[in-house]
């Protein structure tokens, strides 16, 4: 098969015998036609051989989600000389499960699985740290007063030793 003929990947949402799209089979066929092993491809696109095998076998549960999956598909398609955007478009139903979380106006995280109230947890932990920091500062000032390290004119009258 020539390189030009091998660069055509079927991106039709048609199904193969197992009821899945044939994109994984087409990617495998292109890889084999170029004489590349999974390890060689993995070395070139910096993804693990198990991830490339999972893509070719369309085992979506074994693949990363969202942007990482898009990056894998895009890198693999470019290496094989196929159209990455067409392949990504044909795999879109499988890629939707990993939609990234996004911030809402209230500061909570909105994900496909629901809203994660981030403000309440962040608020309580912030107050804890603020209290700890203030206590450390107060202890340092008290120790400085006790040792006489602070000038007496900096101190209020009730803290000065001379009583002025």
From TrEMBL:
Bias kind Polar residues: ranges: 1-14, 103-113
Domain HTH cro/C1-type positions: 27-56
Keyword annotations: Membrane, Transmembrane, Transmembrane helix
Domain of life assignment: Bacteria
Region (Disordered), start-end ranges: 1-20, 99-120
Pfam families found in the cross-reference section: HTH_25
Classification via CDD domains: HTH_XRE (cd00093)
InterPro entries: Bact_Cytoskel_RodZ, Cro/C1-type_HTH, Lambda_DNA-bd_dom_sf
Gene3D superfamilies associated with the record: lambda repressor-like DNA-binding domains (1.10.260.40)
Family matches, as SUPFAM superfamilies: lambda repressor-like DNA-binding domains
Transmembrane spans: 127-146
GO MF: DNA binding
PANTHER family (UniProt xref): CYTOSKELETON PROTEIN RODZ (PTHR34475:SF1), PTHR34475
Protein's name according to its UniProt entry: Transcriptional regulator
């Amino acid at each position: 098969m020539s390189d030009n003929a091998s660069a055509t990947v079927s991106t039709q949402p048609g199904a193969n015998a197992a009821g899945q799209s044939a994109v994984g089979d087409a990617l495998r066929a292109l890889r084999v036609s170029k004489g590349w092993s999974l390890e060689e491809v993995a070395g070139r696109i910096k993804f693990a051989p198990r991830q490339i095998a999972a893509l070719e076998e369309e085992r979506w549960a074994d693949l990363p989600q969202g942007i990482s999956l898009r990056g894998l598909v895009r890198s693999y398609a470019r290496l094989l000389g196929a159209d990455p955007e067409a392949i990504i478009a044909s795999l879109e139903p499988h890629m939707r499960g990993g939609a990234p979380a996004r911030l809402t106006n209230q500061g909570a995280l909105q994900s496909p699985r629901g809203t994660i109230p981030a403000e309440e947890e962040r608020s309580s932990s912030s107050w804890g740290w603020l209290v700890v920091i203030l206590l450390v500062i107060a202890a340092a000032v008290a120790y400085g007063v006790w040792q006489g390290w602070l000038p007496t004119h900096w101190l209020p009258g009730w803290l000065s030793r001379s009583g002025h």
